[in-house]
């Protein structure tokens, strides 16, 4: 599996200090055709995933720099179907994420921001080596991200972010690694670049569009290189509404080109973030 940090519009904007937020998200994704080195494989695999994600966030000043930290816990299910119908489904708690970001440069007058973020994902979720699909990856992951946002016009900003994820080893990989016994799974770093415009329609509504390029992430099983580098392109459309209840967000995206893995034909995310 590959994983990246998708940003919402204005996530790169430095926050005001001493704020607390709770965010509840629902994600629905669908994956289908398996690709190997750019060639579609036979069969009609279907992988439907649903998850609820709960996040608690605190903003503060770290010296003179704006900063934010959050802790996040998902709960989800994976339902294989089609030619994967014989595979077991999985339901349970996912992997815990802890993240902190700081802004070395932040100029609210010019709407220009440079942010740095670090993420730690711990293998706290439900996992069985006898299942090919799990809500946990049974390994630690770390990610470093840098994002920059600046105005293009009076109402349109441009953003670009780059993150690289590093993966710990999974020494209990069986079904996912097509093995009857546990073997060792290792993965090369995975780098994601995302960029696009953000349009502020008015005080309430904001929309954005992002293009993603994902590269790297080749795996090895018992030190045998699998030749499955990710070269994936995808898009993500975002909309936000600031209401008295909180900030509602809606995102939709999908893969447009993939070299290795199951192509993602649907990503739908709905979020509510509320200050308290």
Helix percentage range: under 10%
How large, in whole angstroms, is the Cα Rg? 19 Å
Structural class per helix/strand content? mainly beta
Anisotropy-based shape: globular
Number of strands: 18
User: What's the pLDDT, averaged over the residues?
Assistant: 96
Low-pLDDT residue spans: none
Number of helices: 0
Order of helices and strands: EEEEEEEEEEEEEEEEEE
Strand order of the largest sheet: 1-3-4-6-7-8-9-12-13-16-17-18
The description of the largest β-sheet is: 12 strands, antiparallel, barrel
- Taking the alpha carbons of the first and last residues, their distance comes to 35 Å
Q: Report strand %.
A: over 45%
Commentary on this structure:
It is globular, with a radius of gyration of 19 Å. The chain has strands at 20-36, 39-40, 45-62, 65-82, 90-93, 96-107, 112-122, 141-151, 156-167, 170-173, 183-187, 190-200, 205-216, 219-221, 224-225, 230-242, 247-257, 261-275. 0% of the residues lie in helices and 66% in strands. The chain starts with 19 loop residues before the first strand and ends with a strand. It has a twelve-stranded antiparallel beta barrel with strand order 1-3-4-6-7-8-9-12-13-16-17-18. The protein has a four-stranded antiparallel beta sheet with strand order 10-11-14-15, with no helix packed on it. With 276 residues, it is an all-beta fold. The model has no long low-confidence stretch (mean pLDDT 96). A hairpin with a 2-residue loop joins strand 3 and strand 4 (65-82). It contains no helices and 18 strands.
């Amino acid at each position: 599996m590959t994983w990246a940090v998708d940003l919402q519009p204005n996530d790169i904007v430095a926050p005001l200090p001493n704020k607390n937020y709770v965010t509840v998200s629902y994600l629905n994704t669908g994956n289908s055709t398996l690709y190997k080195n750019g060639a579609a494989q036979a069969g009609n695999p279907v992988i439907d995933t649903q998850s609820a994600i709960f996040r608690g966030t605190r903003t503060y000043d770290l010296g003179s720099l704006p900063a934010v930290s959050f802790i996040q816990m998902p709960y989800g299910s994976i339902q294989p179907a089609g030619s994967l119908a014989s595979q077991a489904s999985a339901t349970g708690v996912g992997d815990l994420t802890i993240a902190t970001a700081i802004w070395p440069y932040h100029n609210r007058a010019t709407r220009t921001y440079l942010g740095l973020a670090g993420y730690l994902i711990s293998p706290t979720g439900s996992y069985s080596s006898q299942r090919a699909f799990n809500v946990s990856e049974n390994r630690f992951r770390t990610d470093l991200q840098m994002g920059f946002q600046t105005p293009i016009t009076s109402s349109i900003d441009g953003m670009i972010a780059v993150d690289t994820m590093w993966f710990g080893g999974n020494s209990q990989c069986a079904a996912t690694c097509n093995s009857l016994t546990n073997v060792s799974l290792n993965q090369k770093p995975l780098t994601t670049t995302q960029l696009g415009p953000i349009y502020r329609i008015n005080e309430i509504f904001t929309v954005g569009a992002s293009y993603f390029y994902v590269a790297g992430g080749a795996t090895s099983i018992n030190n045998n290189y699998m030749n499955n580098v990710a070269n994936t392109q995808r898009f993500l459309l975002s909309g936000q509404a600031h209401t008295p209840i909180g900030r509602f967000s809606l995102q939709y995206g999908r893969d447009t080109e993939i070299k290795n893995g199951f192509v993602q034909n649907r990503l739908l995310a709905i979020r509510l973030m509320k200050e308290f």
